[in-house]
Amino acid sequence: MSLESVRAFFAERAPDIAVIESHKSSATVVLAAEAYGVEPARIAKTLSLRIGERVLLVVAGGTARLDNRKIKAVFGGKPKLLAADEVAAITGHEVGGVCPFGLKTPLPVYCDRSLQAFDIVVPAAGSTRSAVRIAPERMAELTGAEWVDICEIRIEDARQWG
Question: What is the bridge-based pairing of β-strands 54-61 and 43-51?
Fold first, then answer.
């Protein structure tokens, strides 16, 4: 799975989007921003959450933080991050390379509005050394994601909202 499943996903659904590989690790938001030459807020991090019995993915801006109060209002429960072994078993992607593309198990995907501050975001692509450049709206469309407002945006990033 992983990088190969992400390549297959794009080959089938969006052949115009190329997977970018880096010689540097992009396993964290800071490393990914350095590897792909963008500000950390533009990195689209994918979080694997369990809320009650449900497992879902949330894609958010790299510097946005989950707001438990907002999550409870939207999803009806308190979120818990999945353990690394669960993430790999369910998504097919290792932690640091998790993305909403080419998943091993179909999961509901939610995109946080923190991504809408940007024309292009950079999510991982199934490995700790791969990513794609994609418009947030296109990412949501390709993954069947629903838009939600469940994150806090850091003050220094809020100026991008105008």
Answer: antiparallel
User: Which amino acid, 59?
Assistant: V
Helices assigned H by DSSP within the chain: 3-13, 29-36, 68-75, 84-91, 136-143, 155-158
Average pLDDT for runs of 10 along the chain of length 162: 92 97 95 97 97 97 96 96 96 96 97 97 97 98 98 64 42
CA distance 14 to 114: 23
CATH topology for 3-154 is YbaK protein (3.90.960)
Task: Tell how far CA 137 is from the center of its chain.
Answer: 13
3-class state of residue 123 by DSSP: strand
What are residue 49's phi and psi, to 5 degrees? -120, 150
Where in the chain are the domains?
3-154
Q: Is the dihedral of CA 61, 151, 153, 112 positive or negative?
A: positive
